[in-house]
C-alpha cells in the first residue's frame, strides 16, 4: 500500500459490506450490528468523496460500489460478508473456550473488535495496523463513539516490522495469557517468508494460543488471484501497491503449517461459506472463489 494513504483495499471491503447491507435481496445476510457499525465507518471514510445531500452521496457511493464489483470480482462483496460472519463465529467459540486476549493484525476498517468490546468489556483486544489506516479509523470511532471496553489501537507498519517486534513494543499485550490472533485478508500481501515468520511468532506465544487467517488458493504457480477476477483488478492492486504475493494450494496447507508445528482445526472454502452462512433464498448467489479461512493451533505454543 502507499505509505501516506489509508489502505484502498480496506475501504473497498468496508464499502462492499455496506453495499450488501443496502440491497433488498441480500441485506438479510448482514447481521444488524455489523450493518450498523459498518455504515458508520463507511460514511466517515467516504465523507469527503461525494458532493450533494446525504441521500445523493449515499446513492453515488452505492452506484460506485456496484460498478467496482462488476469490474473487479463478481460476488466479492457477499464473500467478504460471509467471511466476516464465519470468522466472528470462530472468534466467539474461542472466547467461550477461555480466550481472554485477541490480537487483530492488519485490521483495516473492520468493526469486529469494536462490536466485541462493546458486548464483552472484559475482553482485551489489540489492533495492529498501518498508521495511515489507523488514523482514519480512530477518527471514525471518535466521531460515532463506537469503541468501548478494552479495545486498544497500536500503529505499526508490518511491511518493515515483524509481528514479534510489534508485540514487544505494545504495552497492552500480555504475553503470559493465551491469545487468539486474527489476520483477515492479510497473508496474500506478504511473502512466504513473512508468513512463516508470523507463524513462528505465534507459535512462541502462551500455551493455548490460536490463529485465524485467510489465504488465497494458488491456482497455478505464482497465481494467487480469485478465480473469477477481472484483469482490471490485478492492474488496480498493482497501482495501489497492494498486489497479492502469496498463496498456497489447500491440499498443501496442512504440511505447510506442520513445518511451523501447527495443526489445522478448521478450514472453510467458498462452498462451505455458501452452505453454512447463506440463507436458502440466496443460496445460489454469486460468490467470489479463491480465498479460504483457516483456524490453527500450535500444541506446544509457549513451551
How are the strands ordered across the major sheet? 3-2-1-4-5-7-6
Mean pLDDT: 92
How many runs of DSSP E, i.e. beta strands? Answer: 7
Enumerate how many helices there are, as a single number. 11
Report strand %: 5-15%
Tell me, what's the shape?
Answer: globular
Structural class: alpha/beta
What oligomeric state do the depicted chains represent? single chain
Intertermini distance: 36 Å
- The helix/strand order is HHHHEHEHEHEHEHHEHE
Q: Low-confidence segments, ≥5 residues, pLDDT <50?
A: none
Helix content: 40-55%
Describe this structure in words.
The protein is globular, with a radius of gyration of 18 Å. It has helices at 8-21, 32-45, 54-71, 76-96, 112-119, 131-144, 163-168, 192-203, 231-239, 253-258, 270-277, and strands spanning 101-105, 124-129, 150-155, 179-183, 210-216, 263-268, 291-297. It is 43% helix and 14% strand. The model has no long low-confidence stretch (mean pLDDT 92). It has eleven helices and seven strands. The two termini are 36 Å apart. By secondary structure, it is α/β, with parallel strands linked by helices. The protein has a seven-stranded mixed beta sheet with strand order 3-2-1-4-5-7-6, with helices on both faces.
Amino acid at each position: 500500500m502507499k505509505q501516506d494513504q489509508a489502505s484502498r483495499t480496506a475501504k473497498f471491503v468496508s464499502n462492499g459490506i455496506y453495499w450488501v447491507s443496502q440491497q433488498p435481496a441480500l441485506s438479510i445476510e448482514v447481521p444488524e450490528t455489523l450493518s450498523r457499525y459498518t455504515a458508520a465507518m463507511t460514511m466517515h471514510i467516504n465523507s469527503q468523496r461525494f458532493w450533494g445531500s446525504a441521500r445523493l452521496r449515499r446513492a453515488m457511493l452505492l452506484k460506485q460500489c456496484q460498478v467496482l464489483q462488476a469490474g473487479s470480482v463478481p460476488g466479492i462483496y457477499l464473500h467478504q460478508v460471509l467471511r466476516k460472519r464465519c470468522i466472528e463465529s470462530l472468534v466467539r467459540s474461542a472466547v467461550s473456550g477461555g480466550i481472554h486476549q485477541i490480537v487483530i493484525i492488519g485490521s483495516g476498517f473492520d468493526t469486529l473488535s469494536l462490536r466485541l468490546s462493546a458486548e464483552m468489556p472484559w475482553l482485551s483486544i489489540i489492533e495492529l495496523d498501518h498508521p495511515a489506516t489507523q488514523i482514519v479509523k480512530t477518527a471514525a470511532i471518535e466521531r460515532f463513539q463506537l469503541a468501548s471496553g478494552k479495545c486498544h489501537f497500536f500503529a505499526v507498519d508490518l511491511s518493515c516490522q515483524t509481528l514479534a517486534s510489534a508485540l514487544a513494543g505494545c504495552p497492552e499485550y500480555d504475553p503470559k495469557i493465551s491469545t487468539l490472533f486474527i489476520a483477515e485478508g492479510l497473508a496474500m500481501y506478504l511473502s512466504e517468508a513473512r508468513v512463516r515468520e508470523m507463524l513462528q511468532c505465534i507459535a512462541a506465544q502462551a500455551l493455548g494460543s490460536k490463529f485465524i487467517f485467510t489465504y488465497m488458493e494458488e491456482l497455478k504457480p505464482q497465481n494467487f488471484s480469485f478465480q473469477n477476477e477481472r484483469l482490471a483488478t490485478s492492474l488496480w492492486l498493482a497501482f495501489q501497491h497492494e498486489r497479492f504475493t502469496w498463496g498456497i494450494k489447500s491440499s498443501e496447507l496442512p504440511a505447510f503449517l506442520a513445518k511451523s508445528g501447527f495443526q489445522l482445526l478448521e478450514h472453510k472454502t467458498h462452498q462451505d461459506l455458501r452452505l453454512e452462512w447463506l440463507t436458502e433464498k440466496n443460496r445460489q448467489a454469486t460468490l467470489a472463489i479463491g480465498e479460504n479461512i483457516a483456524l490453527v493451533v500450535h500444541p506446544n505454543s509457549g513451551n
